[in-house]
Amino acid sequence: MTVLFDKANAPASGMQKPRHPEKQNRPDNAILRKPSWIRVKAPTSSAFSATRDIVKKKGLVTVCEEAACPNIGECWEKSHATFMILGDTCTRACAFCNVKTGMPGAVDLGEPAKIAEAVIEMGLQHVVITSVDRDDLSDGGANHFVNVINAIRETSPKTTIEILTPDFLRKDGAVEAVIDAKPDVFNHNLETVPRLYLKIRPGARYFHSLRLLERVKDRDPQQFTKSGLMVGLGETKEEVMQVMDDMRSAGIDFLTIGQYLQPTRKHAAIDRFVTPDEFKAYETIARAKGFLMVSATPLTRSSYHADSDFAQLRAARAAL
Ligand code: SF4
Asked: How many whole angstroms separate alpha carbon 67 and alpha carbon 284?
């Protein structure tokens, strides 16, 4: 699914508003044909429709749709949707991301309750919550994360909660507030190797992101920490291995690695498709470096198989 224009929010004049206005004057990057190991089936099942109906009825936003995730058919068929809180518009403009960019609207104060209800309706044992970047808010949206975690805990105390947060850059006290809400898994993606930050993640800082995850472990060592990388953006194997070492130094428990897929012609170009064998090799190396859990496949995404992976993560810690 590639979305260049946002028809839902098109002005009455009929002019379509681009999803990524800041990218419109960039040169086009050709979209490479996907190799056989990337192909996924179009979603058709009634279970998929049931998940879609709950999301629509509650007026919730999912990263599955906004990021045009290739796994949506498989995940939604199993009721695994990843909720994206704090709106559908991001204040950053990363070169890899399909989420709409611009100035977001007001925070929906009813969202924590709606998400808690959706968790019950979908019967989720494990839920993943992410958000857009909200550089416009004084706390970066941290208190909204806390409210969502608390609302789920109150109504579904047995459901485990995984959060995938922005970097809360220049938001003093924000990360601490979220850590203290005690999610079961605190995920923040490094996304790529430091050399490519300026090109791929220009609004972020590699060492700030790394330190954020280290701070989670320092403040609450029981919380699992997780981080992810996209590959196929031009990084070298040595650079990926260096990031793995950095992550282990920060105490990160769980590493995800997946293939970068280019959402539109205006996004960063794919350098190459990393083969399934290379992913296997990354997994072997990462396990040898001491991660408790590793998921490295072309279609791995932060929240892909998050529920069963969380069970394995817990089992791996218990076996230490
Ligand atoms: S991998 Fe994550 S973002 Fe993609 S469809 Fe599954 S739950 Fe949604």
From this structure: 28
